[in-house]
Amino acid sequence: MFLSLLKRNRFFQHFTLRLGFSVGLIALSTLNYGFDNQGIATIWEYNPKTKTYAIPSYFLSLLNSLNFIGFGFGLYIGSIISARYGRRMAMFCMSLWAMMSATVLVTATRKEQVLAGRILNYAYIGMELATCPPFQAEIVPAPIRGFAVGTYQTSLLLGGIIINSVCRGTSTLTTNAAWRIPLGLFYIVPTIVASCVWFIPESPRWLLLKDREQEARESLQRLHGSNASYNVDEDLALLKLSLLNEQNKGKYMDLFRGSNLKRTLIAMGVNFFIQATGSPFTAAYGTLFVQSIGSFNAFNYAIMSSCLNFFCCLVAISITDKVGRRPLLMIGSFLQSIWLFTMGGIGTITSPSLSQKQVIVGATALSSASLCFSWDPVNYILTTELPASRLRDKTQRVASIVNIVTNFLFSFFTPYLLNAPYADLGSKVGFIFGAFAVCSFAFAFFCVPEMKGKSLEDINQLFENRVSIMQFGKTSLTNEVDSTEALDP
Description:
The protein is mainly α. The chain has one domain: Growth Hormone, Chain: A. Helices cover about 70% and strands about 0% of the residues. It has a two-stranded antiparallel sheet with strand order 1-2. Helix 3 packs across helix 9, helix 6 packs parallel to helix 8 and helix 9 packs antiparallel against helix 10. It comes from Oidiodendron maius (strain Zn). Keywords: Membrane, Transmembrane, Transmembrane helix.
């Protein structure tokens, strides 16, 4: 009975061993994003004059904003390599780069070298964002695409748990090993990925774009061939037919023409709201913010919050292919509004009690968890689902630039909003991010189409047919094609 239940499970129905290994290896690369995101956030500088650990606001602002220079560079270079030389080559190159940037970080003797190392490491993260989500979306079938692409964010959060735990363990050390040991983890993942990436098949959709039809067929066979119900000729025919019917030439101007304009604007909007609703605040400054409140051990908070975020993200990616993308976005925005306005409201109290401070800490953690249940994983899913095949890399590039610019602005200005002698808003920043959360709810309701369970080719056709946002999820297409005819040159 148990075996029969497994066979009916959609994951076991669609995941072959080769496909599972491929998706897992691609997701593994994101651990380093989590290592950087949380590892740097828990590193403080000792001030011998005050005998305290802290980072000046100006340097904290630089540390969490200038890294996006590297992010933008990596995004562009990674996207170019991925589009011209393949997804696997891009992953190999970014892994070699990650080892170099890790060396700069681990050998640092001054905080300025840590800043330089982080900028270099974010070039790796930019390459990763340009390559990994599109790669995952292109190799998995529609019923599990949300789960597969969502593992990008889940792996990031798992990386945060690992490095926060290591930082907690080394926090009692009084030597440089306290921070060099956590940063040494940056070597492990790229070494594994660089060694194993050539054992996974290349994206069949990318191969077809390069007119390498036989290799695309072999890739499909290797990824899905062990599934008894899979018909490689039919699948290849549908992919070819979609490319033949596509009017785009793959140029940047095509992003803003016809039905592509709507897709591009939606992708840009999703990438804007993921940052504007507080992701830079909770991810980059959450631990330091809790430390400043003084009601909770900052390291314990970092571990607790990371575990909660990981659990929420895992639940989200497990149900998104059943529940849908839009409901998760709207639920997340609604919950974020509650937690952020609660945090801001308590911040208006001049001298909050211990219990009120703990509520602020709880609201901060729940705001981050709500984001991880919704916008964080769904953003990557939507950005890979929306574009036409010939424009996927360019759409990813443009949407991610919006993500980077928004993240840069909020990361740069947040320390000045939080701390004295500047705006000194403290937890009242919840009002700012809460207002954006309300706007994100409206955006999700009116602007985001429901794409669960639809193939990338079906999504492309629905946009070409000018189907309205509200009817998108309810409209189905019949993809019946003569595979022999479609395979003929």
